[in-house]
Design brief:
Layout: H1 2-16, H2 21-32, H3 36-94, H4 98-103, H5 109-121, H6 124-138, H7 143-170, H8 178-202
């Protein structure tokens, strides 16, 4: 069981540490110092849910679904990420500082968690990494070791998201100036744009 736990922990870290739309969103909330705990809990428990769905044996079924509807799934996510990137570039143009995001209507807890949900559950690569990849690898273990593997991968998600969110919050005092947020928004916008292009390539339209 120990081998299963540390295998899951190591593989979980190697998968989740790759920069993606969800990670950038958590980083942004940490820098804002707004709704950090709900966001990191939501992302961590969402990963845990998907990981344990995968190790339960659902990876084969989901693989068929993703393959069947992959074009439309990737296209839809790409469009949404492109829209998100455009919003960030508009913020750059308007010179919005941190006060705009903390006090603005778009940073309500419900709106924030809705964005987190879209970035989590509407992203096909989340399913490919957690349910399909981790789920398929876990099948080589016996039942108890497989549970330990899932627990290890889940632990990696919790450690990563809490470290990312609260680590970013420690830097919040240094990014209060509008000029700094200009570059943060540019960076977030380009990352979202790159991920959107990646989605369009997966959808075979680029």
């Amino acid at each position: 069981m120990t081998i299963g736990f540390f295998s899951g922990l190591t593989l979980g870290f190697s998968i989740i540490i790759v920069i993606g739309a969800q990670n950038v969103f958590v980083l942004r909330q940490g820098l804002l110092g707004k709704h950090i705990l709900p966001v990191v809990l939501f992302c961590s428990f969402s990963d845990a849910l998907l990981i344990f769905i995968g190790i339960s044996g659902a990876s084969r079924f989901l693989t068929e679904v993703v393959q069947k509807y992959s074009t439309w799934i990737f296209l839809g996510v790409g469009i949404w990420l492109l829209f998100y990137a455009v919003i960030r570039f508009i913020d750059v143009y308007r010179g919005h500082g941190v006060e705009h995001y903390i006090e603005g209507p778009n940073n309500k807890l419900s709106t924030t968690l809705m964005s987190a949900a879209v970035l989590t559950f509407a992203n096909p690569h989340v399913y490919l990494d957690t349910v399909i990849l981790l789920g398929t690898i876990s099948m080589k273990f016996e039942f108890l070791t497989r549970l330990a593997f899932g627990l290890g991968a889940t632990t990696a998600s919790f450690l990563f998201f809490f470290g990312l969110g609260y680590g970013a919050s420690l830097m919040a005092s240094r990014v209060q100036k509008p000029a700094v947020w200009k570059y943060i928004n540019i960076g977030i916008g380009f990352i979202m744009l790159l991920v959107a292009v990646w989605m369009f390539q997966e959808a075979k339209i680029l």
